TrEMBL record:
GO terms for molecular function: ATP binding; ATP hydrolysis activity; L-isoleucine transmembrane transporter activity; L-phenylalanine transmembrane transporter activity; L-valine transmembrane transporter activity. The lineage of its organism: Bacteria, Pseudomonadati, Pseudomonadota, Alphaproteobacteria, Acetobacterales. Residues 5-252 form the ABC transporter domain. One of its GO terms (biological process) is L-alanine transport. It comes from Acidiphilium cryptum (strain JF-5). This is Amino acid/amide ABC transporter ATP-binding protein 1, HAAT family. It holds the Pfam family ABC_tran. InterPro entries: AAA+_ATPase, ABC_AA/LPS_Transport, ABC_transporter-like_ATP-bd, BCA_ABC_TP_C, P-loop_NTPase. GO terms for cellular component: plasma membrane. It comes from the Bacteria.
């Protein structure tokens, strides 16, 4: 099977800092891949390069065999890659349904001129989008919040709304930056189930996550980076027992309660 997403020798410098250095890995269609590493390792920077926010200073990125290196963010989205951010970015005053509907429009199928005329095809498309938004809300157990303002909801629910919004755009792949951050144990267990459900619906998943329970339970493959370089890659059991990974996590002197457990 050929890879859906391929990074070949990707790197970026910020001034003198090599934030990501000659990083290569692949994500196959239908896989759940986790990118992990200590704080500041370069994980979000990798996501920013894939989604066109940052331009790599070396290497190449391919999606479905097409070179998407340094493609603009809206074109990466149009190609079928949607993402969430490490900190929540919803329209706070809009309802849950409106937030998800906004996501539907990130990959429009209609031509620009169709929007100027009220063509039957356009009305049909609007009806389809509304139906899809409701279907996604049902799938993520958000339907009872459909008309609540996003900002009024508990944090864990807002996180689910973000996930719903990425799905609304009918992506081929979603990229999640710390989806379990700030969730309680029940919510993170539910998140793992949600991620499996998303994958089973045909969407490939790449995630950055510090919650090792989530990572170890969902990931088919784990890529570990430290100081921008790949130090290990393999299944959960390989990673759990990898001496370099243990060293990278335990050898730090900050006091975050993370670890490869
Ligand atoms: N725009 C930027 N300009 C300068 N340095 C940056 C920029 N973005 C990221 N960096 C630096 O690149 C390194 C990697 O940062 P990044 O945010 O990718 O880490 P991370 O692995 O996502 O960490 P965390 O787990 O804390 O989210 C850090 O040293 C960071 O300060
Ligand atoms: Mg980050």
């Amino acid at each position: 099977m050929s890879a859906l997403l391929e990074l070949h020798g990707v790197g970026i410098r910020f001034g003198g800092l090599r934030a990501v250095d000659r990083l290569s890995f692949t994500v196959d269609k239908g896989q759940i891949v986790a990118l992990i590493g200590p704080n500041g390792a370069g994980k979000t920077t990798v996501f920013n390069m894939i989604t066109g926010v940052y331009r790599p200073t070396e290497g190449s990125i391919r999606f479905e065999g097409q070179d998407i290196t340094a493609r603009r963010p809206h074109l990466v989205a149009a190609a079928g890659i949607m993402r969430t951010f490490q900190t929540i970015r919803l329209f706070p005053e809009m309802s849950v349904l409106e937030n998800v509907r906004a996501g539907c429009h990130l990959r429009v199928r209609q031509q620009w001129w169709q929007g100027l005329l009220s063509l039957p095809s356009q009305r049909r498309e609007e009806a389809e989008l509304a139906e899809r938004a409701h279907e996604i809300l049902r799938r993520l157990d958000l339907d009872r919040f459909a008309h609540d303002r996003a900002v009024s909801l508990p944090y864990g629910v807002q996180r689910r709304v973000e996930l719903a919004r990425t799905l609304a755009a009918d992506p081929k792949m979603i990229i999640l930056d710390e989806p379990a951050a700030g969730l309680n144990d029940n919510e993170s267990a539910a998140l793992s189930e949600t991620i499996f459900g998303i994958r089973d619906s045909g969407i490939t998943v790449l995630l950055v996550e510090h919650d090792m329970n989530v990572v170890m339970s969902v990931a088919d493959k784990i890529v570990v980076i430290n100081f921008g370089q790949k130090i290990a890659e393999g299944g959960p059991d390989d990673i759990r027992n990898d001496a370099q990974v243990i060293e990278a996590y335990l050898g730090r002197d900050d006091d975050e309660e993370e670890g490869v457990s």
